[in-house]
Amino acid sequence: MKPRVLFLCTGNSCRSQMAEGWLRHFAGDRFEALSAGMKPSQVNPLAIKAMGEAGIDISAHRSKHASEFLGQHMPYVITVCDNAKESCPIFPGPCQRMHWPFEDPALATGTDEERLRVFRRVRDEIRDAVSGFVSQTAAAVIRG
């Protein structure tokens, strides 16, 4: 069974969805990537577009409430916004918690192109964080 990684944010519409997509892309064979929110809404179309430009399709993702995963063991819980960090539920068993506070691209203003630029930047920041997580976790497994 692959270790589960749960990415949490407020709305489960952008950052956590992108992180889930990146983890599946980089290491879907080694981890089960999940995402949820404290107040789920819907997957943001600009998040879908920005990820699609990077070759990752998250259009079939749905916004989920964190309560869907309560009572389940999550070896890794990664909050991607301060609000989720403050209200993160407790999961049973050993759990490594991390906090990656990314800017919320859904709050970007301006034209569609200006807003999309913010989504692209945050997408790339999340890509780098997820890639680092995969590398660090693989190194820890090798070290035993």
Summarize the structure.
Helix content is 42%, strand content 14%. The chain is an alpha/beta fold.
What is the count of distinct domains? 1
User: Would you give the CATH topology?
Assistant: Rossmann fold
Main β-sheet, spatial strand arrangement: 2-1-3-4
Overall residue-averaged pLDDT value: 91
Number of helices: 4
CATH architecture term? 3-Layer(aba) Sandwich
CATH superfamily: Response regulator
Instruction: Give the C-alpha Rg.
Output: 14 Å
* Coarse structural class: alpha/beta
The largest sheet, given as strand count, sense and whether it forms a barrel, is:
4 strands, parallel
Which shape, going by the Cα principal axes?
globular
> How many beta-strand segments?
4
Query: Uncertain regions: pLDDT < 50 for 5+ in a row?
Result: none
Order of helices and strands: EHEHEHEH
Helicity range: 40-55%
> How far apart, in Å, are the first and last alpha carbons?
18 Å
Describe this structure in words.
By secondary structure, this protein is an alpha/beta fold. The protein has helices at 15-27, 45-53, 82-87, 112-143, and strands at 4-9, 32-37, 76-79, 96-99. The protein has a single domain (4-143), classed as Response regulator (Rossmann fold, 3-Layer(aba) Sandwich). Helix 1 (15-27) crosses helix 4 (112-143). The protein is globular and about 45 Å long. The two termini are 18 Å apart. The model has no long low-confidence stretch (mean pLDDT 91).
Primary descriptors:
globular, four-stranded parallel sheet, Rossmann fold, 42% helix, single chain, 4 helices, alpha/beta, 144 residues
